[in-house]
Specification:
- Strands 1-2-3-4-7-8-9-10-11 form a nine-stranded mixed sheet, sandwiched between helices. The protein has a two-stranded antiparallel ribbon with strand order 5-6.
- The chain has 351 residues and is an alpha/beta fold.
- The longest helix has 22 residues.
- The protein starts with a strand and ends in an 11-residue tail after the last helix.
- The protein has one domain: Rossmann fold (3-Layer(aba) Sandwich), CATH 3.40.50.
- Helices cover 32% and strands 20% of the residues.
- A hairpin with a 6-residue loop joins β10 and β11.
- α2 runs antiparallel to α12, α4 crosses α5 and α5 packs across α6.
Length: 351
């Protein structure tokens, strides 16, 4: 198990990114209060912050801490927990960002770098794992995405231990860092790509395992971006019977992002749960739409293998006569951040 701890810069150390008489940072001056008080989801500010956190989850603890300080979690504590075992197709990294006062924690799972063969193999390692899940109205054994489950399992206990410390009014860091003034009040879980699927899986675990009930009581919402399906229609149905998983697992889909359409039907039946919002341009300015029917599966693995062509087509502007119904290009995290930035709100770089 690999860990990395750090604390974010103070407000005085967050220098404006451009000459101005008005401080550029933080982006949201009352972010901790907003995260602690928001009960209705999705929320535009929360979605922007979670998308940004998920996008920078591809970096290291110091970078995540800095970006979240710029967003408004000034003086945060950031702990990275990672487990990598190539032969087991495990490449699991998560960040716990704790507000300075201790009231808010964001659990962010790292996603799938396109350059990493191991993590791509993890995503396509869909042989189902039969997992007992104690749903309130329908406990039983369910088929879940094998790669997603093994990656969540590999870091789960270290993450739960850190969350328990936060619940007890302690720092998420094992050593060092100031003691918070408050115990955990509000927990959010987020991620992009494989990280999104891991976030959804962790949401299911937290809300169904009795031993996690004290932590689950603080869970406000799960925000995911470009999420793969994590289980069969039977699992999706059981999740949608749980009010929190039906209403507070918020899935964002940018345009024709291929990831929410995976695994393909050749791998067996899979289905999404929770609320789905899709960004559509319709030939003009883009908007987020609530989909009553979630994205379905693509038919063939050949679409996955051939899909990088859509990325190259975008890069070389050769799409005039070519239509792609599933796109790797639309999966990139910066699209989600840009589309979810509210009008008039600065970026994480002060622009």
């Amino acid at each position: 198990m690999q860990t990395q701890d750090c604390t974010a810069p103070s407000l005085a150390e967050l220098r404006p990114m451009k000459p101005t008489s008005t401080p550029t940072f933080p982006v949201y001056h009352e972010l901790v209060e907003t995260l602690a008080a928001t009960d209705a989801h999705p929320d535009a500010t929360v979605a922007h912050v979670m998308a940004t956190c998920a996008g920078y989850g591809y970096s290291d603890a110091a970078t995540v801490a800095m970006i979240m300080a710029r967003m408004g979690m000034v003086d945060n504590r950031c702990r990275m927990v990672a487990q990598v075992v190539d032969v087991m197709l495990i490449s699991s990294t998560a960040f716990l960002i704790q507000s300075h006062d201790g009231r808010v924690v964001i659990l962010c799972y790292r996603g799938t770098p396109p350059t990493s063969l191991i993590t791509w193999l993890t995503d396509t390692d869909v042989n189902p794992e039969k997992i007992p899940i104690s749903f309130p109205h329908s406990p039983g054994t369910f088929d879940v995405h094998g790669g997603v489950y093994r990656n969540v399992r590999s870091t789960r206990y270290a993450i739960v231990a850190a969350l328990q410390r936060a619940l007890d009014g302690e720092s998420v860091l094992e050593e060092g860092g100031t003691k918070p003034d408050h115990a955990l009040e509000s927990l959010y879980v987020t991620g992009h790509s494989l990280g999104a699927s891991m976030a959804a899986m962790m949401g299911v675990m937290l809300t169904t395992e009795r031993s996690y009930a004290p932590i689950a009581a603080k869970l406000k919402a799960v925000y995911t971006f470009g999420q793969f399906m994590i289980g069969t229609p039977l699992l999706a149905e059981a999740c949608n019977d749980v009010p929190f998983l039906r209403d507070n697992v918020i899935r964002y889909v940018y345009a024709n992002d291929i990831a929410p359409q995976l695994p393909p039907t050749q791998s067996g039946p899979f289905e999404h749960f929770g609320q789905e919002y899709q960004y559509r341009t319709n030939g003009g300015e883009g908007q987020w739409h609530h989909n009553k029917t979630p994205r379905g599966q693509i038919k063939s693995l050949l679409e996955v293998v051939g899909n990088p062509l859509s990325f190259l087509a975008r890069q070389f502007q050769i799409t005039r006569n070519v239509t792609f119904h599933a796109s790797v290009y639309d999966h990139l995290p910066h699209h989600y951040i840009a589309a979810l930035t509210p009008p008039g709100v600065h970026s994480e770089y002060g622009e």
